[in-house]
């Protein structure tokens, strides 16, 4: 994993907060299956970490929580980026031992495993190939959906034992269901400062800063015009984007307001919503 994509001057996803139906059930899954450590817990909330210090994921059980609704905007998946292929081999071996249902894909830029939490929230666990091996054409990075070389990945972990998410794990990216792409692309580019680096036809696009393959994925696979999920429904509550400093965050707040988007200050944090109702915290 190349740390340069997750530090200044880049903007990247720092933290994801999810709504779940049963906190105890989700906490068991996230600790025993995914390998998070518990940082802190209250009656309705748990904060999770890979290194015992940095919060990467918060799970919340809202009052009168509703099960996940189909064909709405919101989370497609969030993606946990591991520091090495050995670690991907270790977690794959762990999932096989648990008989955990999995998807997988080689995206040329990365090798990825896919699964869902008990509420159907999508999770990707992946590693990047070195950025020198990515192919770029006219500002667009080449990505595809090929089968992974599972035997080769497992061979990396020969003799190794899985013991949870390793130090050096980061939130690699987030991929969202949105209701349309044109205004959404304007919001993330002219508003938040991301570049479009890959398009999948008229249905999906991928955006980043610093020439990463993507910090944000956006798709209309839940349907063009899909409504937002209910506020107390399972799914994404908010995700944070980390800006290099207060000046750059301030510029983004101004850009958003100029484009006609609301930015609210809540307890010292700046919160906005994309055109599909996905909530974003602007952090530094």
Automatic annotation (TrEMBL):
- Annotated keywords: Metal-binding
Per the UniProt entry, the signal peptide is none
Alphabetical list of Pfam families matching this protein? Glyoxalase
The record's listing under PANTHER family reads: CATECHOL-2,3-DIOXYGENASE
**Protein name per the record:** VOC family protein
Give the domain of life: Bacteria
Magnesium among keywords: no
Q: Does the keyword Metal-binding apply?
A: yes
Tell me where in this chain the VOC domain is found: 12-128, 170-284
């Amino acid at each position: 994993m190349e740390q340069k994509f997750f530090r200044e001057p880049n903007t990247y996803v720092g933290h994801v907060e999810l709504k779940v139906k049963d906190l105890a059930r989700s906490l068991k899954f996230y600790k025993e299956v995914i390998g998070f450590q518990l940082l802190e817990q209250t009656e309705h909330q748990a904060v999770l970490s890979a290194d015992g210090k940095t919060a990467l994921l918060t799970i919340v059980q809202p009052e009168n929580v509703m099960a996940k609704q189909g064909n709405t905007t919101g989370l497609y998946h969030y993606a946990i980026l591991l520091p090495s292929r050995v670690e991907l081999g270790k977690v794959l071996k762990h999932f096989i031992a648990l008989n955990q249902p999995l998807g997988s894909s080689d995206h040329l830029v990365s090798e990825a495993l896919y699964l869902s939490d008990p509420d159907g929230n999508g999770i990707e666990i992946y590693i990047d190939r070195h950025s020198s091996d990515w192919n770029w054409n006219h500002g667009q990075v080449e990505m595809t959906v090929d089968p992974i070389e599972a035997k080769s990945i497992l061979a990396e972990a020969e003799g190794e034992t899985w013991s949870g998410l390793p130090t050096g794990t980061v939130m690699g990216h987030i991929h969202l269901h949105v209701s349309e792409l044109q205004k959404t692309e304007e919001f993330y580019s002219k508003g938040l400062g991301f570049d479009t680096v890959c398009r999948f036809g008229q249905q999906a696009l991928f955006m980043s800063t610093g020439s990463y393959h993507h910090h944000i994925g956006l798709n209309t696979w839940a349907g063009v015009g899909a409504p937002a999920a209910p506020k107390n429904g399972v799914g994404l509550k908010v995700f944070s984007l980390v800006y290099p400093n207060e000046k750059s965050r301030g510029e983004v707040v101004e850009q958003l307001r100029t484009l006609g988007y609301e930015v609210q200050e809540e307890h010292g944090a700046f919160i906005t919503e994309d055109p599909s109702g996905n909530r974003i915290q602007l952090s530094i």
